[in-house]
Amino acid sequence: MNIELDAPLPCVQETPAQPSAIAALRAATWPSHQQLEKRIDVKSRFGNLVAYRAHLENLYGFCAALEARVAPDTFGDALPDYPSRRKLVLLARDLASLGLGPDTIATLPCCGDMPAIDSIASAFGCVYVLEGATLGGRTLLPVVAARVGVTPDRGAAFLASYGDGVATMWSRFGAALDAWCRDPKRRAAAESTAVATFDALQRWLCRVPG
């Protein structure tokens, strides 16, 4: 993996006219986010345990590809808690709770259609998609729990994500993103990679298995 080691930028004072980097990413990815929500049939994906497990298997394949590109040491001091934010271990725990053995999990299909990650800024854009999913996961958790009987300790670790700390973790991510992507070139790289990652997720989740 070829990660560009960007030199730290001098402190730049934000003006009221300049939105935060996380607000810019939210605006840039909004159309992709809306399209994904329209194509995802929540009732069918979370209507029973078999469908829910299939959804987790798909997410596992996507996260495996993403985390292969964004290694634990990718961010360095730019996002020092990134290793604790990686989601693949949570999905593996969920799938094991729902009856999949380690050999089966290891052979799940992996997404081969991911954007290139060649800088810390682009890594921020990629990880933004899954960090945002932690907010949605907290909303989905009670719905899925009621429908299929999962809990954070059995089958819903991914949805539960950081538990009661989700707001704090999101705030820390936003602060790190803002600090690194104040420069317009970095911000543009983060935005374009976030959009590409969202679109890759949509293609992966909505594909017709061959």
Descriptive terms for the model:
210 residues, mainly alpha, Heme Oxygenase, Chain A, single chain, disordered N terminus, globular
Description:
The protein has helices at residues 21-39, 42-45, 49-69, 88-97, 102-106, 120-148, 157-160, 166-180, 184-205. It is an all-alpha fold and 210 residues long. It has a single domain (21-205), classed as Heme Oxygenase, Chain A (Up-down Bundle). Helix 3 (49-69) packs antiparallel against helix 4 (88-97), helix 3 (49-69) packs antiparallel against helix 6 (120-148) and helix 6 packs antiparallel against helix 8. The longest helix is centred in the middle third of the chain and has 29 residues, at 120-148.
Question: In a few lines, what is going on in this structure?
Answer:
61% of the residues lie in helices and 0% in strands. By secondary structure, it is mainly α.
**Uncertain parts:** 1-16
The total beta strand count reads 0
**Helix content estimate:** 55-70%
The Cα radius of gyration reads 17 Å
The structural domain count equals: 1
CATH topology name, in short, is Heme Oxygenase, Chain A
CATH C-level: Mainly Alpha
* Cα-to-Cα separation, first versus last residue: 29 Å
User: What's the helix count?
Assistant: 9
Strand fraction equals under 5%
The quaternary state of the protein chains shown equals: single chain
Q: What would CATH call the homologous superfamily?
A: Heme oxygenase-like
Structural class: mainly alpha
Global outline = globular
Major sheet attributes? none
**Mean of the pLDDT scores?**
89
CATH architecture: Up-down Bundle
What series of H and E elements makes up the topology?
HHHHHHHHH
